[in-house]
Amino acid sequence: MAEDMENLYQERLKRYTTAMRNEKPDRVPIRIFAAEFAAKYAGYTSQEVTHEYDKAFEAVRRCAKDFSWDATVINMVYVWSGLVDHFGQKYYKVPGIELPPDVGFQYFEPADEEGAFMKEDEYDALIDSPTEYLANIWMPRISRNLVPIGTPNTFRNNMAWLKGGISMMAYFGACGEAVARLKSECGTVSAIAGIIKAPFDILSDKLRGFRQVSIDVYRQPDKVEKACEALMPYLLQNAMVTSDPTRKVPATVWLHRGTMFSKDMYERFFWPTLKEIILQLWKNGIQTLWYGEGSWSKWLKYTAELPEKSIVYHVDKEDIFEAHKQIGDKFAISGGIPNDLLAFGTPREVKEYCKKVIQTVGKDGGYIMDASAIIQSDAKAENMKAITEAVLEYGVY
Amino acid sequence: MAEGKVKVKPGELIPWEVREKEYEKILGDKAILKQEWEKIEVIANRFIWAILTDF
């Protein structure tokens, strides 16, 4: 790597990690999570970046260079539909297949008990041995290629296991190369490493489904609670093995459903096992990026129980200024630039909003510039440029 | 449930304890076998959980 690029990378890494530790770097770091926006900017369709991951990596590199991002994710179109095609997941609608080529991929959740990938009477099997439950029961249900245990085997079943595994190895191998190229060609930091899911989220996303779990919390609450407890150590291990071995960048918890339940339910089903995962990671030196989708302001008092600096609190829909007032002394904050402003606002409006966030939330450091949510194709390039301009103009300490 | 009735722990699929009992004999270094067995266990286990959490 060229010396100047190495220096740029080190400068950005220091800026980014300093801010994430809630300290004051030389300036506010720009860390952008761009999905279909990157494709559009680079001249690719959603189908191209969803199905050809090299194009997705290239699109992000182009954005990182042109917008001077300090940190980003190599590919935020996180579902590689090639793997989906080989393994056969039923829950995605893919651009260029079921969706027009310029529409982002969609997750379709079963809406009733009949379609649920985990049935209401299967809690004990999940609790008893989560990995075996997934491999033996859940996977044959979510894949159009696999056959359930106890039924005649098929060539298609065997090939789906083989091709699914090989596809994942190929993709993760390519991700490693993409991280290296992001560093050597753009001097940009790969922003996150390690995936965390809250046990209750995964139960209500991919296992039971939201409608079904909403019934379960009333009809069989003990089973729901035990399932979350059973999943916890497995999701922790999954986060640990995918995290940054150097402990510099955070693992990310993508939070979905916790805001849709009552206080009592949050306290019983959602928070205890999520908290334990974050605590265990922190004990192992791994910071968590708290990526709460929607507004998590009503649960701030629970989040504030976490050790100082153990998380970076990302703001989506809630009031970033209020969040900063309440927990800004404990945790760094990221995001909070509304995506609708990036889609429908003017560069001047974007710049003004960024200025306000930098001068209040980022006043003493501990702020990482980003949009509220992952950036889709509706964001305007001139507004993305305005974010960078605002940081360079107002974000230098 | 797991072969040999050993609970499948986080990061495992077919635990080493189960595989170990299947060898008729081990003339060389058992630690080498264990190390390589567990190395692939972690990767294969990740496949299962990655389908749930990532894909």
Give a written overview of the molecule.
The complex is a heterodimer of chains A (397) and B (55). By secondary structure, chain A is α/β, with parallel strands linked by helices. Chain A has a single domain (3-394), classed as Alpha-Beta Barrel (TIM Barrel), CATH 3.20.20. Chain A contains 17 helices and eleven strands. The mean pLDDT of chain A is 97. Chain B has 55 residues and is mainly α. Chain B is elongated and about 40 Å long. Chain B has two helices and no strands. The A-B interface holds A 78-80, 83-84, 87, 89, 128-129, 131-132, 134-135, 138-139, 142, 164-165, 168-169, 195, 197, 202, 206, 233-238, 241-242 and B 1-2, 7-8, 10-13, 42-55.
Approximate shape of chain A: globular
How large is the radius of gyration of chain B? 13 Å
Number of strands of chain B: 0
Structural class of chain B: mainly alpha
Distance between the termini of chain A: 29 Å
* H-E order of chain B: HH
Write the layout of secondary structure elements.
The complex is a heterodimer of chains A (397) and B (55).
Chain A: H1 3-20, E1 31-32, H2 36-42, H3 46-51, H4 53-66, E2 71-72, H5 81-87, E3 92-93, E4 106-107, H6 123-128, H7 130-142, H8 155-186, E5 189-190, E6 195-196, H9 199-207, H10 210-219, H11 221-242, E7 251-255, H12 263-283, E8 288-292, H13 300-303, E9 311-315, H14 320-327, E10 332-335, H15 339-344, H16 347-360, E11 367-368, H17 381-394
Chain B: H1 16-22, H2 30-53
